[in-house]
Amino acid sequence: MILCNFVELHGWVKKMARITPIVKEGQLIDAEDAAVELDSVAWFRWLEDHRAFRFVSRGGSFTARKEQRAGRWYWYAYRRQQGRLHNLYLGKTEELTANHLANSATMLSGIASAHRPASTNMQSPTLLTAKVTPPLMHTGVLERPRLTTMLREYAMQRQIFFITGPAGSGKSTLVNSWLATGGHPYTWLTLDKADNEPAHFWHYLVSSLQVVQPGLALHTITQRSALNTAPVATTLPSFINALACLPANTTLVLDDYHHINNQAIHDNLDYVLEYLPRQLRLVIVSRQEPAVAIARLRAQGKVAELTFAELCFTPGEIKQWLSGIENQPLTAEQIALLHTRTQGWIALLRLALLAQSQAPDQLTHGQDDHEYIFDYLASEVLASQPQQMQDFLMQTAILERFNSELCNAITQQQNTRHILMQLQREQIFLEPLDGAQQWFHYHPLFSSFLRQQLEQHHPELIVPLHQRAATWYVQQQIPNEAISHACAAGQFTLAAQLIETHGRHLLMQQAMAVLQIWLVQLPDSIFTERPQLCLISAWVQLHLAPRWDEIERTLVQAETTLKTQADLYPELQSEIVAIRARIAMYQGDNMRSLELLQQAHTDLARDNLYQRGEVALSLGSTYASQGFTDKAEASLRESIRLSSSCHNLRTTLLAIRTLANLYVELGKLPQAWQIYHEGLRISNDKSLAELPPLGFMYVGLGELCYEWNDISRAREYLRQGIELGQRGGDIKIWLLGYAGLMPTLLALGEDSQVWSLFAEAEKLVEQSGFPRGQLLLEQLRVRLHYLQQDTAFMQEWSASCGLSLDVDEIDTLYAEDYQLLAQTLLLQHRPAASQAIIQRLRHQAETSRSRGIQLSLLITSAVAYASAGETSQALETLGASLKLAEPAGYQRTFIDAGPRLLPLLEHLSTDPQTHHGYTAGYLAKVFNSCARFHGYKHKNTRYASLNETLSRRELDILHLLAAGLSNQAIADSLIIGQNTVKTHLKNIYGKLDAHSRTQALATARSLHLL
Fold first, then answer.
1. Ranges of residues in the chain whose predicted pLDDT is under 50
2. Does the keyword DNA-binding apply (predicted)?
3. Radius of gyration of the chain from its Cα atoms, rounded to whole angstroms
4. Is the C or the N end of the chain the one with fewer CB within 10 Å?
């Protein structure tokens, strides 16, 4: 019988679950009625008569419930994920349109995904999800149409909002209420003092935006090192572009911005405000006017402001608010007096209301300053609480945020959950930080008051309380909070141990400012027996305040300690050497730096993969700059292997880019192509296809396609690289992509787009203050004018560039400028002066084994010889360039040399006896590519016919055909379909009057195409 009843009950529950109304694909499916279309009259009538339904869409799902708040009915969405309940305000019945429900499902799904429990791994940064969660909407929140209407009107014309007022003036509640009923996506970031670390600030800011747009601006994860060692402005233009990925009318709220006192953050936020894209609205909530250029923004008409004067409750609003609270009957006179004493300050209104409930005949008296407030809180609020509650409030005031377990630990009680629930019911002192209402913090005004009370009445408890907090955070594996409390408690040994344990990870994140805050609190004596701590301090000094003598003293202290502890820390001496190598590099002593890097590389343990990968990358770059190409290649390949194996993907990709550049300099273009694709494979294996440094891979592939004259594919790759650079905020990727795309657009005949793009790049470099970028653009400007054969510009540039024609040895820093000067002199019909420069450059290029530069110089030299009437020498030099170029398949270097090269190429093509070291087919390919681009009229009718009939793709297929590739292999090589290959082959046969592969190849060889 019991079993029978259980089965019946279970079936009844399942039946009830089945009949829950469901909204799906634009229709309400209700067991009681026929399907109802959303947005119809029947839909809104149904909502009036029902309390719940289930909404399902592609963007997400939730359960909607109608709940009574302050005498009215509102709809809320709930979604449970990984044991946590998340909610979202939907609005009144008339606001539940199909579009609004779909957007809410997407937003709630994003919030739920972003709020996964923080990692307990001490080696991974802990994200406090409470900081990126909008404040929980309490029951009884007063609708303030006076202010929400004002905000809605401002939002039609303004993007930037400043909401300022003292603690407890209702700023956050107003903004949350306004946005929750607006029907547009918004996200929230609650700031605290720890966010003065730039890397910390930007990491949380981007994390909050990723609630709305997952994956946005990943450069803050992969480029945290740049945030504290270089101006953040170098990444901001691209970061701002990445914001364009956000949905329209997205709002970001920066709450409690008054905690930020780092001028670098102010300056960079000011920059963001200046160039804020239309998709984003920024709301800054602060107790004081933010330290950004408000005056300028006001003058530009960009800002909307609400101050304390507007935020204060009017007597009418106080009356309306009190009408929703039971057992609070106040007369009109009492309301007026309450308004006078509190000036409509909602925090004091709440506190005064509490006092009124305790002593109905008394209202607040006294002055309106913090002393008055604290006196009031002490006498009328704290004193009215039981002693146990008073003790709890003061003791937990040392915590920025807390849950019941943490409160149990520091108060040494077991019933704090009950106390928190009691405080939560009061809705005065305590504010929940998450939807699950597990984490809380005190109202800032009340928290300051409680800490003052603790210092006055129980100063002896402050140290033990911080000690207990530090112990709890250590047990929970949250090192940052543990270190802060250990320092506050004077537990410097514990703090030092924690910094040693987790400082390496923070160094990898480049969280230097946080480390410095902790390190300066430690007494000098704590460093004397801790060489690891000394080295962490040295790295921080190196990045934040590079005073070489102080860093050296720190290193000497570490070395002194290591004399007695070398067995305990075998790796530290190598790290000391690596730091000294970095210092030598910063001071321009490359030989010293190379010597020290080699020593560090030799001494590091084989299992220290991360450090060895970084040293190998530095070694490879240094070797390359010194011309030691074999050693550079070996070091860079080692960096790729080591960094990839320890999942340091950013260093892996940077090493790949550096190695590929080395291959390009050596003329090994196919090897560069292969290593770039290796980078793409590694990232795909790690499921990181959107990693911003991948932009280097796509930019590199675009540069290679340009050289191979595959212009359409070059443009595609370069744009992919630029997009990743913009999304990730890496100005180097973006700028290199632009530098490659501009000549590509010239090759496509899109000259107007080129100079528009150049103006964008100039603005980017100017905004970011990137000096190397300015140099790159100056060289690029001259090159673009040369490619356009702009003789007037080139002549003006050569007269003002300041490059001497009489220099005996050319500085390698100016080698590219001198090459442009040599080409300009040819435009001015000065072949002897041009040849003099070229010969000096050729000698340097041969010494460095830089085939790419050698090739370009040989081609320019051939044109110079021809201009001087030395035809035989010109042909011999051009032949040498073809021999050098064919293994790597160079084409664009010949095309970009200009139309004066074509008579020489044609001369070689008409006399097969002159071919030495290169094939007739390669010569024909280069000749046809140059002739097509420059519109050259051939004297040789066979070549003219082919130039008019065979397309570039058909010539490519012809070469692959000669290599013996099958149709499928050709399709795979060119990334086209097999049917497309068959179509091209049919066209080739027709144009060559051939009926088979054999006949087509024979005819092509007779025409010197193969």
1. 1-18, 114-125, 221-222, 363-370, 427, 509-510, 941-948
2. yes
3. 36
4. N
Domains identified in the chain, total number: 3
Q: What is the pLDDT of residue 104?
A: 78
Q: In angstroms, rounded to a whole number, what is the distance separating the alpha carbons of residues 892 and 954?
A: 18
What's the start-to-end Cα distance of the chain, in Å?
Answer: 92
**Cα–Cα distances in angstroms (integers) from residue 956 to residues 960, 965, 971, in the given order:** 6, 12, 11
Give yes or no: residues 148 and 168 share one domain: yes
Calpha distance 489→939 (Å, rounded): 90
Pairwise CA distance, residues 521 & 779, whole Å: 49
pLDDT at residue 799, rounded to an integer = 86
Cα distance between residue 164 and residue 566, in whole Å? 56
What's the confidence (pLDDT) of residue 853? 85
H-state helical runs in 887-966:
892-895, 902-910, 920-934, 941-949, 952-962
Same domain, 320 and 239: no
Report pTM. 0.53
d(CA 242, CA 222): 15
Residues 149 and 289 in one domain: yes
Q: Give the bridge partners for 283, in sequence order.
A: 161, 253
Q: What is the DSSP code string of 250-306? A: EEEEEETGGG---HHHHHHHHHHHHT--TTEEEEEEESS--SS-HHHHHHTT-EEEE
Q: How many residues would you count in the chain?
A: 1010
Structural domain ending residue among the three candidates 268, 285, 311: 311
Beta-carbon contacts of residue 288 (< 8 Å; ≥ 6 apart): 164, 258
Q: Nearest-CA neighbor of 259 among 206, 189, 211?
A: 189
Q: What is the pLDDT of residues 694-751, one digit of tens each?
A: 888 999 999 999 999 999 899 999 999 988 877 655 677 888 999 999 999 999 888 8
Domain end residue (candidates: 81, 114, 147): 114
Task: Please give the pLDDT value at position 134.
Answer: 80
Closest CA to 319 of 309, 334, 307: 334
- Nearest 10 degrees: CA dihedral of 71, 75, 76, 78? 130
Whether 178 is covered by a domain: the verdict is yes
Please state, in angstroms and rounded to a whole number, the distance separating the CA atoms of residues 373 and 352. 10
Looking up residue 247, the CATH number of its domain turns out to be 3.40.50.300
Domain assignment present for 601: no
Residue 812 lies in a domain: no
Does residue 259 share a domain with residue 219? yes
Residues 254 and 301 in one domain: yes
β-pair partners for 124: none
Phi, psi of 187 (to 5 degrees): -140, 160
- Whether residue 752 is contained in a domain is answered as no
Residues 6+ apart with CB under 8 A from 644: 652, 682
Tokens (6 digits) for 57:
């869409």
Contact 931, 938 (CB under 8 A): yes
What range does the domain containing 65 cover? 21-114
Task: State how far the alpha carbon of 288 is from the alpha carbons of 171, 285, 630, in Å.
Answer: 12, 9, 60
What is the C-alpha to C-alpha distance for residues 995 and 997, in angstroms, rounded to an integer? Answer: 7
| 66 lies in the same domain as 153 | no
Q: Which of 190, 189, 136, 181 is nearest to 155 (CA)?
A: 181
Query: β-strand 160-164 against 84-91: which pairing, if any?
Result: unpaired
- Which residues fall within 8 angstroms of residue 364, CB to CB, at 6 or more apart? 338, 341, 342, 348, 352, 355, 376, 380
Contact 75, 65 (CB under 8 A): yes
- Taking a C-beta distance cutoff of 8 angstroms, is the pair 237, 231 a contact? no
Q: 181 and 278, same structural domain?
A: yes
Closest CA to 847 of 663, 634, 627, 591: 627
Q: Which residues contact 515 (CB under 8 A, 6 or more apart)?
A: 499, 503, 506, 507, 536, 540
**Both 55 and 191 in a single domain?**
no
